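Hey, I was hoping to borrow your eyes for a little while. A protein chain has come my way and I'm curious about its shape. Take your time with it, there's no hurry, and the full record follows here:
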Amino acid sequence: MTQEFTQDNFTADVIEASKNKPVLVDFFASWCGPCQIQAPIVDEISEDMGDKAVVGKLNTENAMDVARQYGIMSIPTIIVFRNGEPAERFTGVQEKEVLAESLAKHA
């Protein structure tokens, strides 16, 4: 199930969780057309990965400080976190296979 990351839960649900398994964060905004294309792909990845990875979305409109902290300049941007740090970064709409491969690589 795709998680909703917020400014309040980001440290626990992304940074801390990534010490045990990879965490994929889809940085998006509700008004962003490409983000709406990316969203169902991220949901599929979440279902496919089950408990092997944490997959979620962060609305940059509601978490501007987190977006700024990770230098999000365009959306969608996807960052895979591992061991509390960004391990891989993608900008623009990504195919399911690319994201699945990244999570597998960082598992």
In short: Residues 73 and 102 are 21 Å apart (CA to CA). The first helix runs from residue 10 to 16.
